[in-house]
Every structure is written in C-alpha cells, then in structure tokens.
Design a protein that fits this description.
seven-stranded mixed β-sheet, 9 strands, single chain, about 25% strand, 2 domains, alpha/beta, binds glycinamide ribonucleotide
Length: about 200
C-alpha cells in the first residue's frame, strides 16, 4: 500500500484528520511513521494511541533547521519505512538538502494562508495584522524556498471583523483538515501532475 511518513512538531490536529480519513476508508494509505522534533508533541501521543510508530528524533542545536547529521537520521528513518510521500503537518523546521536529495518532489506541506500571501510563521496572525478580508490554507509541494513550492489545493476562509488570531486560525484549521487528506488521496492515486509551477488534477 502507498506509504506516507508524517513530520509534526505540535498538537497534531492535521495528523488526527489524516488518521480519521484512513480509518473512514477515504484514504487508502498506510501511515508508516510519525516523527517529531519535539519530545512533548501531542502528535506523538495521537500516533501511539492509533498504533502508529511514533519517534522523537533530536533536531540538534539550531532553531529553524535540523542539524545536518540529524537530518540524515530523519531521512534514514523514513527510508526504513519505505515512505513514498512525506507530509509536513505543523513541522516547524525548514528542510535542507539531505531531504531533497532523497525525496525530491515527494514532500508536501500544509500552510495556514493563501500562498503566496503570508509565508512563514503565524500566517493567521499576519493576515489579521495586514487587514486581509480573506485568508485560508494551502497544500503545496515543498521546494527549497520557504512556502514557495507548487500549489496543490487551497481553501478560502473569510476574515471576520471580530476575528482574533486564534478564532481565525481555528476556522482555517477546519479547512486544513479537509484539504490535506484530499491532497494526499489525489497524490496516492496518481491523479496529480506538475507542469512548471502548475499542479494539474486529473478528475478521472
Ligand atoms: C497548522 O495550522 C499548519 O498549517 C501550521 O501549523 C499548524 C499545525 O497544527 N503550519 C505552519 O505554520 C507551517 N509553516 P496541527 O499541529 O494541529 O496540525
């Protein structure tokens, strides 16, 4: 079966949404392993509670990237599980060349804005601070830039006058939980091809 690996740093609601869609039968994939750079990530507990191998691999001393020898450990682990797709689900580090050399074109991410608006951290807060009337979320392929890879799916969320960063993020997350499993399904069923920057979805 098509096997995915998931990297997560935090509470793991996207991981939970993916697990739910595997259980429902919507997603016909196997989650080989969940790896975190944060030993306290609730995502690890969610994985273990669902019988999925969950590993903390030390990130090393840097804040925004993995130390190169640690990045090699992540890649080695994912290869041991024969993963065909890596899904970043709130993984808060930028991947570097060891990942791209091994899994080029096979890494996707969910980002809480309508890219190319508001890349980087706390995108929901960036949208509020900017005064945007619409925000949303984007599933995209990961390239070597920050939130710059080809867009697979997006969903729009209106920004309400009384939204706080927290209420907006919560509504964005409801959409994330729909489009992330859908993107994984489309890739696992080989219904996606990339033409330049454009991701074409084969409807048949
Ligand atoms: C999600 O909103 C995701 O889009 C965001 O982190 C959150 C993780 O939530 N990712 C980024 O900001 C990446 N730049 P979760 O742990 O509940 O899935």
């Amino acid at each position: 079966m098509f096997t995915i690996g998931i990297l997560a740093s935090g509470k793991g609601s996207n991981l939970a949404a993916i697990i739910n869609q595997v259980k429902s039968g919507f997603l016909k994939v196997k989650i080989g392993a969940v790896i975190s750079d944060n030993p306290g990530a609730f995502a690890l507990e969610i994985a273990r509670a669902n019988g999925i191998d969950a590993k903390y691999i030390e990130p090393g001393g840097y804040r925004t990237i993995l130390e190169p020898q640690q990045e090699e450990k992540y890649v080695k682990c994912l290869k041991e599980y024969d993963v065909e797709l890596i899904c970043l689900a709130g993984f808060m580090r930028i991947l570097k060349k060891t990942f791209f050399n091994s899994f080029r074109g096979k890494i996707i991410n969910i980002h809480p804005s309508l890219l190319p608006s508001f890349p980087g951290l706390e995108a929901w807060k960036q949208a509020i601070d900017y005064g945007a009337k619409f925000s949303g979320c984007t599933v995209h392929f990961v390239d070597q830039g920050i939130d710059t890879g080809p867009v697979i799916l997006q969903a729009v969320v209106p920004v309400m006058d009384d939204d706080t960063p927290e209420t907006l993020h919560q509504r964005i997350q409801e959409k994330e939980h729909i489009i992330y499993p859908l993107a994984i399904k489309l890739i696992s069923e080989q219904k996606i091809r990339i033409e330049g920057r454009r991701v074409i979805i084969d409807e048949n």
